[in-house]
Design a protein that fits this description.
- By secondary structure, this protein is mainly alpha-helical.
- It has one domain: Glycosyltransferase (Alpha/alpha barrel).
- Helices cover 54% and strands 3% of the residues.
- The protein has 13 helices and 4 strands.
- Helix 2 packs parallel to helix 13 and helix 8 packs parallel to helix 10.
- The radius of gyration is 19 Å and the shape is globular.
- It comes from Paenibacillus graminis.
- It holds the Pfam family Glyco_hydro_88.
- GO terms for molecular function: hydrolase activity.
- Keywords: Hydrolase.
Length: 357
């Protein structure tokens, strides 16, 4: 079987696994609730369905929203915004005004009411009964700022585009280590430190994957600061320097004695692809992404389950603590690998125009 056909079959099995009824009640795989875990899953399904032209996938997403939209009426927090990243594309496809109206009211909450730190960065808030006052997490850029950029791209409103760029840059400024280019998981604005100061792989993946998408959405609506580009390039270079020989990254990037982690690896590699696509990175980064595809393929079980995915991870008290996080199947693990595999045929064949950048 050729690799392209293998990838197509793998993506289909992964999709079918993600929507199984038997996952009900399992935190990592229950798709029928409104939070970041299913949010990353459905964002990824949208990317796969749109790229593949599979109407079945897009129909499923419309059904998913109709089943779950009443759950979006709960308390607004950053992590519960992730599913709204679907709404701009769903509005384009259906012209249902509810998608646009709901997206705009959610964006207004983000811009006018959501808590921010003293630097102006969105405070990371979660659906669980716990607070992280004046903490900035890398996760926020994917869970909330991506939505803002997409809505700006749909409506042409520069205020949304400007806010998305500002938040992306602020997160890089607050989280980036100037020496390695790598990101810390979080920043505590009150204490003015990075807490445990750990370069966690999935934190780096969220921003590596999202910044090129933000730029793609807001180009022509908002100025893209050179500092955003240069910081992103520094991040990508730092990530490439610690990629393992099998194409994956360790859960703490600068600890090769720690376990490797699949979802973060997929997100970083897909970010490399999108970074080259948007002209942020040169085409040499695609080789690293190709290696990641080859390294992850053997980690997909016959039933479509992505293996080696670490569970939900707050900012941990030490580097060693990140290495103890349990691994189990999750929708964000499925989703990040799905996004990478959606682009893998171009990566493996070398036919995408980005190779010629």
């Amino acid at each position: 079987m050729n690799t392209e056909r293998k990838l197509a079959e793998t993506l289909d099995v992964m999709f079918q696994y993600m929507i199984l009824e038997e996952h009900k009640g399992h935190w990592g795989m229950d798709i029928d609730h409104w939070d970041w875990v299913p949010g990353v899953g459905v964002i990824s399904l949208m990317e796969y369905g749109t790229a593949s032209g599979r109407r079945e996938v897009l129909d499923y997403l419309l059904q998913w929203v109709n089943r779950n939209k009443h759950k979006a009426e709960g308390a607004k927090v950053i992590n519960s915004l992730a599913p709204f990243a679907l709404f701009p594309e769903l509005y384009r496809q259906t012209k249902d005004p509810w998608f646009l109206q709901k997206a705009m009211s959610t964006a207004d909450w983000m811009l006018n009411t959501a808590p921010v730190t003293r630097e102006g960065a969105l405070e990371h808030t979660v659906t669980e009964n716990v607070d992280f006052p004046e903490q900035v997490w890398a996760d926020t850029v994917y869970m909330a700022v991506l939505f803002l950029a997409r809505l700006g791209g749909l409506t042409g409103e520069s205020r949304l585009a400007d806010a998305a760029v500002q938040q992306a840059l602020l997160h890089l400024q607050l989280l980036q280590d100037p020496e390695s280019g790598l990101l810390y998981h979080g920043w505590n604005s009150r204490e003015k430190n990075h807490m445990s100061a750990v370069h966690w792989a999935r934190a780096n993946a969220w921003i590596t994957l999202t910044v090129p998408q933000i730029i793609a959405e807001v180009r022509g609506l908002a100025a893209i600061p050179e500092e955003l580009r240069s910081r992103y390039c520094s991040l990508a270079a730092g990530l490439r320097s610690c990629q393992a020989g099998n194409g994956l990254w360790h859960t703490v990037l600068n600890r090769p004695d720690f376990v490797q982690e699949t979802s973060g690896s997929a997100g970083i590699a897909c970010g490399f692809f999108k970074g080259v696509e948007q002209g942020l990175l040169d085409s040499s980064f695609l080789e690293g992404a190709r290696q990641t595809v080859q390294g992850i393929l053997p980690l997909i079980a016959e039933n479509g389950e992505v293996q080696g995915v670490s569970g939900g991870t707050p900012v941990m008290p030490s580097a060693d603590a990140y290495n103890t996080i349990e691994t189990y199947p999750t929708l964000y693990g499925q989703g990040l690998v799905m996004q990478l595999f959606t682009h893998a045929p171009d990566l493996l064949s070398g036919t995408h125009p980005a190779w010629k950048v």
